[in-house]
Amino acid sequence: MSLPTPEHAIPGFQTGYPIVAALDLLGRRWILRILWELRNGPIGFRGLQAFCDQMSPSMLSQRLSLLQTTGLIYHTEESTYSLTGTGQELLQALTPLQAWAQQWAEQLRGQEETESAQTDLERSSRPMSSSQSSQPTFLGIAPRFVVRELEQSLAFYEQLGFQTTYHDEDFAIVERDKVSLHLNYFRDFPKGKNSVCWIASTDIDALYQQYLPAEARQAPLQTKPWGFKEFTMRDPSGNLIIFAEHIPEADASIEQGA
């Protein structure tokens, strides 16, 4: 995944505004947590790992390297990590955001309490029915992949632009553009039991170019007889992801004849 720096375009944006680069950096998993833990002074590698819920050494090393490259922390002579002046200024700039977040949380809590009270009132005044006439409706679908190493898989899907919305020891959910993937870690990984997921996209040519730098087994972009342009990738555990865009029949005939 490209390094988020000012004046360079960020995936998903056609601009290089510094604020966009900053938000992209801070939105990456564990970045804010590491900066926050360093707010009171230098901490060593193992100390940071303990403060950050025992994240894997490879993920911590990757994040520390990124923060050093972007000038927010530095490695001291005592083999600890500390905020640079720029890093300290960043935390100071986030102080108003912390106050706003607290106010926001209180507002949402009050809103939830009000809605809950209204729901209880409606239920208590609703007449009981002897039969249920409502028809269950499916609301969504999410492929579930079995993975060998959860942190490695999360880092891979982050390269593809997915954001982690839930993560515990054995399970995680990643999302991009309202598409969710569920990742299950199994200690006894079943050999040859890989899954397949088909994801429809717009602008498949741009997506293919965006994903070229990703470290993954990747099949080239091709036009298929059934009216789609597709390419495939495999995640570190061998699960197959097919990215596809529907193309008009006339365009498909032209591209296949080319």
CATH superfamily of the largest domain: Winged helix-like DNA-binding domain superfamily/Winged helix DNA-binding domain
Assembly annotation: single chain
Average residue pLDDT = 83
Q: What's the β-strand tally? A: 11
Strand order of the largest sheet: 4-7-6-5
Give the CA-based shape: globular
The CATH architecture of the largest domain comes to Orthogonal Bundle
The biggest sheet, with number of strands, parallel, antiparallel or mixed sense and barrel status, is: 4 strands, mixed
| CATH class group of the largest domain | Mainly Alpha
Estimated share of beta-strand residues: 15-25%
Q: Supply the helix-strand structural class.
A: alpha+beta
**Euclidean distance between termini CA atoms:** 33 Å
Q: Determine the fraction of residues in helical runs and give it as a percent range.
A: 40-55%
The radius of gyration over CA amounts to 23 Å
Indicate the CATH topology of the largest domain: Arc Repressor Mutant, subunit A
In total, the number of domains comes to 2
Outline the low-pLDDT stretches.
none
N-to-C series of helices and strands: HHEHHEEHEHEEEEHEEEH
Number of helices: 8
